[in-house]
Amino acid sequence: MRSTSRRRPLVALLAVGLVLAACGGDDVDLDAGTPDVQLVGPAQATAPVAGASILVFELANTGDGDDQLTAATTDVALGIEIHETRLDDGRASMVELEEVALPAGSTIRSRSGGLHLMMIVPDDSVVVGTTFEMTLEFARSAPMTVDVLVGDLSDVAESTFDDPEEES
Q1: Residue 75 dihedral angles phi and psi, to the nearest 5°
Q2: What is the count of structural domains for the chain?
């Protein structure tokens, strides 16, 4: 006679896995409602290191429709890519993303060491204390041009950490 108590955890784990797979973490409905995407606070960039610069910002979708961040452009670099830093077996790696989901009523916060934009080969005008324009492009919303302030890597990274006082 087989013990059903050993199989229960396995069955439960498989059920949870199927539910999570069916939900699809970044699925958005691009046909319903109207998104209203706004920049929350400043957009910042790090001074270039080894031919790249990290761009961080916070976006809120206060509308009743989903959207996606699909691209970003600027005149001061060869290009901008959407990246996410992921940990796998204690090792960090960056993955390039095609888009970032902006569900209705949500806020996304990009930061060094997480979701961020990577400016590839910024030009000589991108130095600490300067600003430049970046245009964010969306699946549904109109493009949004924002001013980006360039700062030291440590200052930009520190400004994107969560404040423990706000979380309690």
Answers
A1: -85, -5
A2: 1
Please tell me the distance from the alpha carbon of residue 95 to that of residue 86, in angstroms, as a whole number: 7
Distance CA 124, CA 131 (A): 12
pLDDT in tens, 83-130: 988 888 888 888 889 999 999 999 999 887 788 999 999 999 999 999
Is 8 part of a structural domain of the chain?
A: no
Burial (CB count <10 Å: 0-12, 13-18, 19+), residue 95: exposed
The DSSP element (H or E) to which 150 belongs, if any, is strand 144-151
Q: Is residue 51 part of a domain?
A: yes
CATH number of the domain where residue 112 is located: 2.60.40.1890
- What's the predicted TM-score (pTM) here? 0.76
What the block records as the tokens of 130 is: 């300067």
Q: Which of the listed ranges 11-25, 87-101, 149-163 does the model predict with the highest average pLDDT?
A: 87-101
Distance (Å, whole) CA 156 – CA 68: 24
- Provide the pLDDT for residue 9: 40
DSSP per residue, 43-95: EEEEPPBTTEEEEE-EEEE-SSS-EEEEEEE-SSEEEEEEEEEEEETTEEEEE
